[in-house]
Amino acid sequence: MTSQPSAATANDHIMGVYNRAPLAVARGEGVRLWDDKGEAYLDCVAGIATNGLGHCHPRLVQTLKEQSEKLWHVSNIFRIPGQEELAERLCAETFADVVFFTNSGTEAIECALKTARKYHTANGNPERVEIYGFDGSFHGRSYAAINAAGNPNYVEGFGPRLPNYSQLKWGDHEAIKAAIANPTTAAIIVEPVQGEGGARAMPEQCLRGLRDLTREHGVLVIFDEVQCGMGRTGRLFAHQWVEDAAPDIMAVAKALGGGFPIGACLASAEAAKGMTVGVHGSTFGGNPLAMAVGLAALDEIAKPETLENVREVAGYFVQQLSGLADRYPDVITEIRGKGLLIGLKLVPNNREFMALARDQKLLVAGGGDNMVRMLPSLLITQEEAREAVQKLEATCEVVRAKAASA
Ligand SMILES: Cc1ncc(COP(=O)(O)O)c(C=O)c1O
Questions:
Q1: What is the pLDDT of residues 38-54, one digit of tens each?
Q2: How far away, in angstroms, is 307 Cα from ligand 1 center?
Q3: Which one of 28, 135, 367, 385 is at 20 to 30 Å from 69 when CA atoms are compared?
Q4: Strand boundaries in 211-304, DSSP class E
Q5: Residue 185 · residue 125 · CB < 8 Å
Q6: Mean pLDDT, to the nearest integer, of 73-96?
Q7: 351: phi then psi, degrees, rounded to nearest 5
Q8: Spacing, Cα 258 to ligand 1 middle (Å)
Q9: DSSP category for residue 2
Q10: Where are the domain boundaries for CATH 3.40.640.10 in the chain?
């Protein structure tokens, strides 16, 4: 009989690419998680914006149970009715005409980048290959995704960087204009609200300006809404806050499956014109299990009351957290983000702060620029938000006390 691994050896056979919190999660419900010792936590991470409806949402559980008894997998060489239905629903909610389903955000990004380059080839412009991303962005961990984001921590040590990928500085309008006017540019890829980069929302006039200019020069716009999409900002997609800013291609994942692995690359018919039979594919993408859960999750998230809740609770959070930042300027220097993608820029090290918050039974995520991010369930109540703020305040007190005794 194999014995249970001890805490000291539990990670021996896991590739060491994650800096994991010493917390073994056993169970979840709504905004709560319980560890293997039965200790409860208020979860403001939600699988990094993935459990958009909280943990074990009853409708998603029921849907998964029912579908698991009907059909799991068939292959994309057959028609998959659930896939057709979810694609139709996503197109009805967005600019898109067609969808390619994947299992993750990275794969959705990969499809988006390939779609953009294929578009120009189909147009007789195969020289249009330049992909411009932005500093501070994150698009996943495939070669294309790390090269599109250009974060040195993620590209170094993996051989030469892929050619024809570069990054623009957030807010450097002249460089952005020059990149768009470059006749070999294929696409600009941007997160309307950066997640990993530290809850940084692109100003609305910049998104619109980017859209206008790219149209003028025949450059495609790819929005990465893997983290900021699916209701996170209080609209189904973050770019929908800005009139006439729809992209040509969009990557979606995370909350689309409410915790079940799904990704999707959405595109206009025009942008997808190079994606013909045989140029792309996936074994698991769009499988019946994922599609059933995705349909249920989209249905719940797109409800006006869900999006209204996000806007209301986000407003409450911003007000309360601004007060906290005023009372603890020695701990929190800035509150930013959009909707329930909230960033707190910190004075103390963000990893230390996360550990101290955990002591208060509050889970928050890290982020670039020494931020912690709060990305709770879209269904979090104001009462639960109040509890989160109280736990943050208690954390700030501990930080202050530690600084005083140091
Ligand atoms: C904005 C953004 N794009 C892409 C990805 C990659 O998604 P996945 O980890 O599902 O491959 C992430 C993941 O955090 C993300 O936040």
A1: 999 999 999 999 999 99
A2: 22
A3: 28
A4: 220-224, 249-252, 263-267
A5: no
A6: 98
A7: -65, -40
A8: 14
A9: P
A10: 71-301
CATH for 25-56+304-405, options being 3.40.50.150, 3.40.50.720, 3.30.1360.70, 3.90.1150.10 = 3.90.1150.10
Assign a CATH topology to domain 71-301.
Aspartate Aminotransferase; domain 2 (3.40.640)
Name all residues whose Cβ lies below 6 A of ligand 1: 48, 104-106, 109, 138-140, 191, 195-196, 224, 226-227, 253
* Edge-to-edge strand ranges of the sheet holding 365-367: 332-338, 341-346, 371-374, 365-367
Instruction: Kindly state the tokens that stand for 138.
Output: 């994150």
Domain with CATH 3.90.1150.10 in the chain: 25-56+304-405
* pTM assigned to the model: 0.97
The phi, psi pair for 133, rounded to 5°, reads -110, -165
Write the single-letter amino acid at 144.
Answer: A
Q: How far apart are CA 333 and CA 326, in angstroms?
A: 8
Is residue 325 classed exposed, middle or buried when 0-12, 13-18 and 19+ CB atoms within 10 A define those classes?
middle
Q: Which residues contact 120 (CB under 8 A, 6 or more apart)?
A: 126, 127, 128, 129, 186, 274
